[in-house]
């Protein structure tokens, strides 16, 4: 045995029981035992069911009436029909155009009465200037009258819609004992569009009296009569529609737009 083999035998002795200096011992690998999973806890038991029979109480099933729907600017404006303001605007435009043109023609003839033309060319320019002034004055007067009439009519329609919303809000409230009694006995069925029209007419009459400095009582009488008549026509229309639907036996959807002429 040579020196190289002896050195190898001294260095590698895997089966030696006693450690020797300078000799590397084999490392023993150990496998750890797996940890068992935790035992799941049992689900909670349901609460015991009482054998007492269920009793309905008025505190559970009696609810107060729902509050009225909240009024928003969008819903308020969507309930207004532009039919009456547009018709008033058209009538005011036509009336102002005719009145303004007629007045402008008379004014032009009065201003030029002392210098009437004597030649054909003079009459041509005379009529040309007259027609120009008549047309221009008629357009200005028509626009002014149409805007004013349409504005006042639109203001009445807005007031009528506001009165209608206020009446519905007031009728839907049952907070007081008198209101509950009135609803139960049908004491408020006589209220309708005619009351809304009267209130709107009176409001517009007061504003017009303050704006144009006109007699207040006279305008109040005219506004009350005109507004009440318009509202009564709306009530008559609704009554005829309900009567026709009752005869036909078919409920047809209809528009509830405020201020509609149909």
Automatic annotation (TrEMBL):
Biased amino acid composition, Pro residues: 34-50
Positions of the UniProt region annotated as Disordered: 15-68
Protein name, per record: Uncharacterized protein
Species, as recorded: Pseudomicrostroma glucosiphilum
């Amino acid at each position: 045995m040579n020196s190289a083999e002896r050195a190898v035998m001294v260095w590698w002795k895997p089966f030696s029981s006693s450690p020797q200096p300078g000799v590397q011992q084999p490392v023993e690998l150990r496998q750890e035992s797996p940890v068992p999973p935790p035992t799941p806890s049992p689900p909670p038991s349901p609460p015991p069911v009482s054998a007492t029979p269920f009793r309905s109480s008025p505190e559970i099933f009696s609810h107060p009436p729902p509050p009225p729907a909240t009024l928003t600017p969008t819903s308020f404006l969507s309930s207004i029909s532009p039919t009456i303001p547009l018709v008033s605007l058209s009538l005011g435009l036509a009336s102002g155009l005719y009145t303004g043109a007629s007045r402008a023609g008379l004014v032009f003839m009065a201003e030029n009465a002392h210098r009437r033309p004597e030649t054909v060319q003079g009459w041509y320019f005379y009529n040309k200037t007259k027609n120009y002034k008549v047309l221009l004055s008629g357009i200005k007067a028509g626009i002014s009258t149409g805007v004013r009439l349409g504005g006042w009519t639109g203001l009445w329609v807005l007031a009528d819609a506001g009165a209608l919303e206020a009446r519905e809000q007031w009728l839907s409230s049952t907070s007081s004992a008198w209101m509950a009694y009135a609803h139960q006995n049908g004491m408020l069925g006589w209220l309708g569009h005619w009351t809304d029209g009267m209130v709107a007419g009176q409001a517009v009459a007061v504003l017009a009296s303050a704006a144009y400095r006109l007699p207040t009582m006279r305008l109040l009488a005219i506004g009350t009569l005109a507004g009440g008549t318009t509202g009564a026509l709306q009530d008559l229309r609704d009554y005829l529609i309900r009567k026709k639907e009752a005869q036909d036996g078919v409920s047809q959807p209809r528009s509830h737009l405020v201020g509609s002429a149909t």
